[in-house]
Amino acid sequence: MRLLRPMAALVWKDLLLELRSRDIVVSALVFGFLVVVVFNFALKVSPERVSELAPGILWVAFAFAGTLAMSRAFVREREQGGMEGLLLAPVSRDAIFLGKVLVSFLFMLVIEAALLPVFAVLLNFTSFTLTLAGAILLATLGFATVGTLFSAIAVQTRSREVMLPVLFFPVILPVLIGAVEVSGAAVGSGPQTGVVTRWLPLMAVFDAVFLVICPWIFSIIVEE
Amino acid sequence: MAAAQGASSSPKSGFAFPGMSGVLLVATAVLMLVNLYLIFLVAPTDAVLGEVQRIFYFHVPIAIVSFVAFFVVFVASIGYLVTRKSRWDSVAHAAAEVGVVFVSLALLTGIVWARPVWGVWWTWEPRLTTTLILWLIYVAYLMLRSYVPNKSQGALYAAGLGIIGFVDVPIVYYSVQWWRSIHPSAVVGPLADSGALEPIMQAVLFYSQAVFLLLFLYLLLERMRLRNAEDRLSALRFVSRMRR
Question: N or C: which end of chain A has fewer CB within 10 A?
Answer without folding.
Answer: N
